Amino acid sequence: MGVVPPGGRRHGTARHGTGTARHSLINIYLFFFKTGQMPRLSKVNLFTLLSLWMELFPSAEQQKKSQVKKSGLVVVKNMKIIGLHCSSTDLHAGQIALIKHGSRLKNCDLYFSRKPCSTCLKMIVNAGVNRISYWPADPEISLQNEVSNPTSTEDAKLDAKAVERLKSNSRARVCVLLQPLVCYMVQFIEETSTKFDFIQKIAKSQPDYNTDFYTACRQERIKEYESLFLISNEEIHKQILMTIGLENLCENPYFSNLRQNMKDLVLVLASVAASVPVFGCFGFYRSGSQRTAEADDQCLPQDVARHCMIQARLLAYRTEDHKTGVGAIIWAEEKSRGCDGTGAMYFIGCGYNAFPVGSEYADFPHMDDKQKDREIRKFRYIIHAEQNALTFRCREIKPDERSMIFVTKCPCDECVPLIKGAGIKQIYAGDVDAGKKKADISYMKFGELEGVSKFTWQLSPLQTNALEFHDPTARENGVQKTKSLDDQQHQSKKLCLGHY
Ligand SMILES: Nc1ccn([C@@H]2O[C@H](COP(=O)(O)OP(=O)(O)OP(=O)(O)O)[C@@H](O)[C@H]2O)c(=O)n1
DSSP secondary structure string, 277-295? Predict the structure, then answer.
């Protein structure tokens, strides 16, 4: 059976395949062969990754250089995300959580991208949260400026002490929850990100087809995120761990294990972020008849749309469908700018494709439409990413607000009416399957959908117009056709274990 990446599907062998890459691919396939499953992100790691990613939410505000670092926060209730936040210029992420959730924080788990300061912690603890997990590097009140600013570092140390006192006297567990990734997860994510639809679409549009630009982009992201989320100097890292009460992690092998786990998660983040790259004139644009100057104005800024799509991509790595993983996330925009670092945007719900809640692995078939017997195929049982996002949303979708769903794949015919019926105003998605009718799942309605704006990953209209000038056959049903991508994808599905 072919193995397909979450959020996309496997294509023909990439030209960038080096010996090592191929070796890791063989290992992934062996893992799949032995276990019958693809590696999957744990919930704790997913929440941790989303907290790091929220720290990077594109901000309209000017970031000032300060001792207080921006931090990201994921609020979780009963293992479901109910809030995604990040610091603004005026408020820390913890303060924002308090304003937004108030006493609803009771019994919640909070995942911070930095250990929160005492000002935030005292209020969060007071609200009765259950657990506070944080990324064990430089805390919110940075401890990294010793030489340049001794006074503020003194204050930072005092704050760290206050945090420890609050921690030891509170009911809430304040801890580091990150877990080692399962075997081959890093390789699997790298491999599947290279093959993600968006990357393939760019690659096919380039005259010299290859995905080297993905590798370059990933390298850049790795460098950027390592400098933000890791502490390169081991001694400084140890000193920080001591100051924030993690002396037990300063001895080997615990210290090196911790650093390896952190590094792996940073690699995962970089790989996924690079799969929705800032590349040339590619982005989320309306297609065909939906395209008007006024309509394009209503599109989110590209960096925000990319950011949310990357969240959906991360969610896809929790899929229970071992062939096609899909992630979806719903955001909405208030009428006026809020206090959150996300501006006017607020989180509504998220999901990934999986079997009904509470079901066990053997309860339902996992086969796809290549299986002759229709009765033992997965399609009638699996809940789609959009369906889970809608079902487990934590806020209502208000008719007078702009709400938007980000899906890593084209919404299918089951989901399109649900999205429209729920009152969602915009869809950001890939369109690779649009217009396809398969044996058990169809993607025909997306193209015909009216009353909901659709922004798909493609070349910007300006660039496309230039292309069309040279090649008028470059579009079909209003959808940008990147030369025979669909055909090549079809071929790729024949990629099976035996080929390696
Ligand atoms: N917008 C979408 C589209 C599909 N899915 C999920 O994606 C899987 C089906 O993907 P698809 O690629 O259409 O079918 P496969 O048989 O997995 O792959 P193939 O293209 O080879 O037929 C199912 O788990 C379905 O729930 C989803 O969650 N949301």
Answer: ---TTEEEE--GGG--HHH
How many angstroms separate the alpha carbon of residue 420 from the centre of ligand 1?
Answer: 20
Give the pair of three-digit tokens for residue 147: 């030489």
Nearest residue (by CA) to ligand 1, atom 21, is 493
Residues framing ligand 1 (Cβ under 6 A): 9, 321, 323-324, 326, 353, 368-369, 382, 384-386, 407, 409-412, 415, 438, 441, 493
pLDDT at residue 192 greater than cutoff 50: yes
Backbone angles phi, psi at 72, to 5 degrees: -105, 155
C-alpha distances in Å from residue 377, one per residue of 17, 45, 366: 32, 30, 6
Read off the pTM: 0.87
What band does 297 get if pLDDT is binned at 50, 70 and 90? low
pLDDT for the residue numbered 66: 81
Per-residue pLDDT averaged across 364-368, rounded?
A: 83
Distance from the alpha carbon of residue 345 to the mean position of ligand 1, in angstroms: 29
What is the average per-residue pLDDT within 274-292?
A: 86
pLDDT on residue 210: 75
If residue 327 lies in a helix (H) or strand (E), which one and from where to where?
Answer: strand 327-333
* Whole-number Å distance between alpha carbons of 273 and 311: 9
Residue 6: asked if its preceding bond is cis (omega within 30°), the reply is no
Question: Please, what sign has the CA dihedral across residues 186, 190, 191, 192?
Answer: positive
Q: How far apart are the first and last CA of the chain?
A: 12
Domain range 281-358+373-467, CATH architecture: 3-Layer(aba) Sandwich (3.40)
Flag the least confident range among 225-234, 359-368, 467-476. 467-476
Catalytic residues: 386
With H, G, I as helix, E, B as strand and everything else as coil, classify residue 68.
strand
pLDDT above 50 for 13: no
- Would you kindly state where each structural domain of the chain is located, as residue ranges? 179-275, 281-358+373-467
Q: What's the gap in Å between 183 CA and the centre of ligand 1?
A: 25
Checking if the pLDDT of 158 tops 60, the result is: yes
